[in-house]
């Protein structure tokens, strides 16, 4: 494990506690206080094998916010425990440079009104998404695989080894969780797809997507392509749509928008949440 961070520009080196521990010619700069010139301190929390960071001086309760979003979606934070996310291994990572605002991408992930139109592979695997009215916010509900579908793969063929902790009630189902402001967690029986968004500007977002599998699956060299390809296509389809929406939203003819489906009122709640946070 790395014990320090080094700036690639001037080679100032910092310990894991943020203190400046080395710099070229630092002995000739006695006025440089190694603590004062250390890294900016932030609040962090480790969960699901990821480090969650909050820039606020007084961070809100992690349990009320992050865990709260999982609880609101699954009905209990314990429902995610069986997926053993922290123990899974990275099988594939793909980064997407999306020419769209991060909030546009969040809205896209939160609703499935568009699924029947732009996600042919996904709706083959999850038929309930094909009616144009599917919603992903019903507490505890996971979309069921089609009767002839063997696994969450691009062609519906058999997937990989099921995560042992996944219960029978969660088997052959897909759960999508939005953790505000910028994380999406997708749960299926044999893997987890973990999205993180990094806003780069008002009209550009880097989305980093991880496919996580059991360590023995990754170590065995199993073919992950069919498994990865399904959500990779979903991502490409979604981000293409978001980019087209971004262009349209910048038109002077655009006055207001939304999703005209009663069951998608949670997007309106997301709008309220954003206004509260930035207001």
UniProtKB/TrEMBL annotation:
Keywords: 2Fe-2S, Dioxygenase, Iron, Iron-sulfur, Metal-binding, Oxidoreductase. InterPro entries: Rieske_2Fe-2S, Rieske_2Fe-2S_sf, Ring_hydroxy_dOase_asu_C_dom, Rng_hydr_dOase-A. The keyword Iron-sulfur applies. GO terms for molecular function: 2 iron, 2 sulfur cluster binding; dioxygenase activity; iron ion binding; monooxygenase activity; oxidoreductase activity, acting on paired donors, with incorporation or reduction of molecular oxygen. PROSITE patterns: RIESKE (PS51296). The keyword rRNA processing does not apply. Gene3D superfamilies: Naphthalene 1,2-dioxygenase Alpha Subunit, Chain A, domain 1, Rieske [2Fe-2S] iron-sulphur domain. Pfam families: Ring_hydroxyl_A. Residues 1-53 form the Rieske domain. Its cofactor is Fe cation. This is Phenylpropionate dioxygenase and related ring-hydroxylating dioxygenases, large terminal subunit. It comes from uncultured Actinomycetospora sp. The lineage of its organism: Bacteria, Bacillati, Actinomycetota, Actinomycetes, Pseudonocardiales.
């Amino acid at each position: 494990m790395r014990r320090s961070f080094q700036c690639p520009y001037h080679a100032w080196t910092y310990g894991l506690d943020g203190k400046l521990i080395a710099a070229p010619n630092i002995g000739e700069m006695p006025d440089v206080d190694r603590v004062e010139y250390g890294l900016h301190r932030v609040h962090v929390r480790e969960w699901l094998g990821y480090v969650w960071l909050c820039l606020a001086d007084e961070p809100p309760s992690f349990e009320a916010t992050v865990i709260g979003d999982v609880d609101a979606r699954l009905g209990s934070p314990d429902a995610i425990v069986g997926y053993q996310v922290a123990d899974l291994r990275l099988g594939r990572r793909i980064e997407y440079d999306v020419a769209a605002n991060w909030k546009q991408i969040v809205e896209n992930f939160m609703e499935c009104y568009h699924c029947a139109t732009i996600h042919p592979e996904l709706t083959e695997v999850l038929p309930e998404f094909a009616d144009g009215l599917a919603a992903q916010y019903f507490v505890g509900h996971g979309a069921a695989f089609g009767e002839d579908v063997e696994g969450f793969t691009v062609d519906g063929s058999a997937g990989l080894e099921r995560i042992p902790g996944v219960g029978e009630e969660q088997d052959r189902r897909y759960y999508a969780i939005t953790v505000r402001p910028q994380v999406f967690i997708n749960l299926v029986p044999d893997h987890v797809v973990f999205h993180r968004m990094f806003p780069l500007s008002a009209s550009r977002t880097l989305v980093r997507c991880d496919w996580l599998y059991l360590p023995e699956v990754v170590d065995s060299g199993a073919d992950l392509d069919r498994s990865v390809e399904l959500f990779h296509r979903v991502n490409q389809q979604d981000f293409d749509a978001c980019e087209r929406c971004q262009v349209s939203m910048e038109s002077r003819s655009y006055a207001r928008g939304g999703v005209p489906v009663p069951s998608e009122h949670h997007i309106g709640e997301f709008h309220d949440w954003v206004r509260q946070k930035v207001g």
